[in-house]
């Protein structure tokens, strides 16, 4: 799951080395927190959050190993 | 993008040496000949080595295709990608067992993938492309569904004599509805709302 997020985001940003994805497991959900370089913020959010929405759609569609809900937090 | 200069006995040898240093193939580079070199007398006297400047160029289509493969792979869906290029439009066709995962409800996952592929493809390329990502003929089936929906909703608008609003759709799906009802002179269509909630409205 973490690899999927990284694969997508790496291709979108200008500074792929600054991508950080952290994973926090809570009772009923797994939260992935994504941070990118300050200059790349717009590239992962997009106009009206269009890119962020597309990333989330793809990530949520991927089957997770656990049965927990997945949540993607950007910035 | 990387750039190096290399030399060799002939232009061909110089290019080969550059490709080895860059660890790439001929399709991925631009070659500029700086000096063609000279054979010289008996290959010894007055011979000049050939110099070339080799620049790696990104193959946008290949990058996008690899991206699509990576993403579907990481989603644990095995899918074959077939790429068709016609001028500025590229179609990636996905085929595989668990393809339903990639399509999602009303194609929302497929549309999200298509949008991301579009972004990757046009990120820093020179050429602008439009992209369609299709999966097991989904786009064709969806088109048929939308066409029959359009006719049904036009009939509904006429029989109720009221405007009928459809559910929100992406631009290329709205276009299908508009073009189908273009020939129907009893109704007119327009789109209302702001993306991502923009939807077709049919008026009697």
Which terms would index this structure?
heterodimer; A: 75 residues; alpha+beta; GMP Synthetase, Chain A, domain 3; 3-stranded mixed sheet; 3 helices; 37% helix; 25% strand; B: 204 residues; Defensin A-like; Ribosomal Protein S8, Chain: A, domain 1; 3-stranded antiparallel sheet; 6 helices; 9 strands; 40% helix; elongated; KH_sf_prok-type (chain A); KH_dom-like_a/b (chain A); cell wall biogenesis/degradation (chain A); RNA binding (chain A)
Care to count the β-strands of chain A?
A: 3
CATH architecture of chain A: 2-Layer Sandwich
Question: Which stretches of chain B are low in confidence, meaning pLDDT under 50 for 5 or more residues running?
Answer: none
Question: What's the gyration radius of chain A in Å?
Answer: 12 Å
Oligomer: heterodimer
**Fraction in helix of chain B:** 25-40%
Largest sheet of chain B: 3 strands, antiparallel
CATH class of chain A: Alpha Beta
Q: Which class do the helix and strand fractions of chain B yield? A: alpha+beta
User: CATH-wise, what's the superfamily of chain A?
Assistant: K homology (KH) domain
Would you list the SSEs of chain A in sequence order as H and E? HEEHHE
Helical fraction of chain A: 25-40%
Q: What is the CATH-assigned architecture of the largest domain in chain B?
A: 2-Layer Sandwich
The total count of helices of chain A amounts to: 3
Category by helix and strand content of chain A: alpha+beta
CATH fold group of the largest domain in chain B: GMP Synthetase, Chain A, domain 3
Main sheet record of chain A: 3 strands, mixed
Number of strands of chain B: 9
What is the terminal separation of chain B in angstroms?
Answer: 56 Å
What does the secondary structure layout of this molecule look like, with pairings?
The complex is a heterodimer of chains A (75) and B (204).
Chain A: H1 2-12, E1 20-25, E2 29-35, H2 41-45, H3 50-61, E3 69-74
Chain B: E1 3-8, H1 11-22, E2 29-35, E3 50-56, H2 60-74, E4 79-86, E5 89-96, H3 99-103, H4 108-121, E6 130-135, H5 138-160, E7 164-165, H6 171-182, E8 188-192, E9 199-203
Parallel strand pairs in B: 5-6
Antiparallel strand pairs in B: 1-3, 2-3, 4-5, 7-9, 8-9
GO cellular component, one term (chain B): cytoplasm
GO biological process, one term (chain B): regulation of cell shape
Family (chain B): Belongs to the KhpB RNA-binding protein family.
């Amino acid at each position: 799951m973490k690899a999927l997020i990284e694969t997508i985001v790496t291709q979108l940003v200008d500074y792929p080395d600054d991508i950080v994805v952290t994973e926090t497991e809570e009772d009923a959900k797994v939260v992935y927190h994504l941070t990118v370089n300050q200059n790349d913020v717009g590239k992962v959010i997009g106009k009206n959050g269009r890119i962020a929405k597309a990333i989330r759609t793809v990530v949520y569609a991927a089957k997770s190993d656990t049965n927990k809900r997945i949540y993607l937090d950007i910035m | 993008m990387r750039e190096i200069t290399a030399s060799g006995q002939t232009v061909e040898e110089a290019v080969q040496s550059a490709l080895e240093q860059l660890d790439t193939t001929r399709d991925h580079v631009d070659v500029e000949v700086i000096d063609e070199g000279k054979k010289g007398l008996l290959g010894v006297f007055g011979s000049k080595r050939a110099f070339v400047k080799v620049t790696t160029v990104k193959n946008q289509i290949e990058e996008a295709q690899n991206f699509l493969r990576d993403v579907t792979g990481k989603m644990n869906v095995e899918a074959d990608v077939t790429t068709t290029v016609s001028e500025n439009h590229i179609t990636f066709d996905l085929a595989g067992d668990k393809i339903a995962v990639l399509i999602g409800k009303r194609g929302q996952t497929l549309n999200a993938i298509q949008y991301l592929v579009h972004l990757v493809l046009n990120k820093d390329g020179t050429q602008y492309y439009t992209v369609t990502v299709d999966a097991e003929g989904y786009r064709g089936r969806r088109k048929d569904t939308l066409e029959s929906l359009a006719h049904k909703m036009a009939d509904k608008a006429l029989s109720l004599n009221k405007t009928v609003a459809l559910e929100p759709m992406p631009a290329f799906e709205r276009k299908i509805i508009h073009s189908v009802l273009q020939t129907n002179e009893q109704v007119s269509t327009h789109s209302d709302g702001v993306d991502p909630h923009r939807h077709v409205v049919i008026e009697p």
